[in-house]
Amino acid sequence: MTAVSFQPSAVSQKEVVLRAEGLSKRFGGLLAVQNVTFTQYAGEILAVIGPNGAGKTTLLNLLSGVYRPTSGRLHLLGRDVTGESMEARCHAGLGRAFQIVRPFPEMTVHENVTVGALFGKSGVTLPEARERAYDLLERTGLAAHADKAAHELTLLQDKRLEVARALATQPRVLLLDEVMAGLRPAEAQEAVALVRSVQGSGVSVLFIEHIMPVVRDLADRVVVMDQGQVIAEGTYREVTANPQVVAAYLGTEEGLQA
Ligand SMILES: Nc1ncnc2c1ncn2[C@@H]1O[C@H](COP(=O)(O)OP(=O)(O)OP(=O)(O)O)[C@@H](O)[C@H]1O
Ligand SMILES: [Mg+2]
Q1: Residue 20: pLDDT over 70
Q2: For the chain, what are the domain ranges?
Q3: Measuring from atom 11 of ligand 1, which residue has the nearest CA?
């Protein structure tokens, strides 16, 4: 018998890793995030850009579970996690690096990453966690600093540690908040390569970034926020040619160096 194989279209095969539906967050009189809807597909690198105060970090806080939304829903890997804690989302496969890095300052660099490895998936033994931490220090260029106390690191090294700690939890989706800020161009290129290698290992990445060349080089798709709302979505070329996006950046400090 000849098997007739059914080939579903490429579109229907795309797995959705993150789906935000009408997410809003109110702080008193301010709607910091307003009715934000977007979809991220498996393997995709998605950038969230927008002028200062646009609501990007607040959105990330809604995704990672730091805040509960005032309204809206969030699905992670097909599951509604709207009411779930940061820890539960982490166990479910969501990793996150913060804009303001906060390692345990008195612990060594290696210990900090080991904690991440223990925290992420249940059932990881301490030797496994320690070994994974060493691997990640190699990948993030921190191996030579493994035994330093975290407070001895430079800004660049701090950012790498933050990414290593997030990766240690073995996420399927990694959220990064301005991990390239303050880096020199050569350092930013290294960070770009690191994010690419993370994508290459099968992780979907959602990142917030002000440095436009980095967004251009990395993002498969860009979501643009202004005053809490999504004002555009598309490729880097599409969004940077969008008059509403150009207007949102007019007169801002960072500008839109497209
Ligand atoms: N915890 C909070 N309480 C009250 N207002 C807040 C809080 N967090 C953020 N905001 C306000 O919400 C708005 C969006 O802030 P958010 O930090 O999300 O912006 P952002 O896009 O990340 O900006 P930046 O590019 O400067 O990091 C701002 O007006 C900010 O002052
Ligand atoms: Mg921010």
Answers
A1: yes
A2: 15-91+205-258
A3: 32
Contact yes or no for 226/48 (Cβ under 8 A):
no
Listing DSSP states for 128-196 in one string gives: HHHHHHHHHHHHTT-GGGTTSBGGG--HHHHHHHHHHHHHHT--SEEEEESTTTT--HHHHHHHHHHHH
Residue nearest to atom 7 of ligand 1 (CA): 27
The residue type found at 147 is D
Indicate whether residue 58 lines ligand 1 (CB < 6 A).
yes
The atom number, within ligand 1, closest to the CA of 27 reads 4
* The two structure tokens encoding residue 62: 């809604």
Considering the segment(s) 15-91+205-258 as one domain, its CATH architecture is: 3-Layer(aba) Sandwich (3.40)
Q: 105 falls in which pLDDT band (50, 70, 90)?
A: confident
Helix-helix angle 109-120:126-139, to 10 degrees = 120
pLDDT value, residue 74? 98
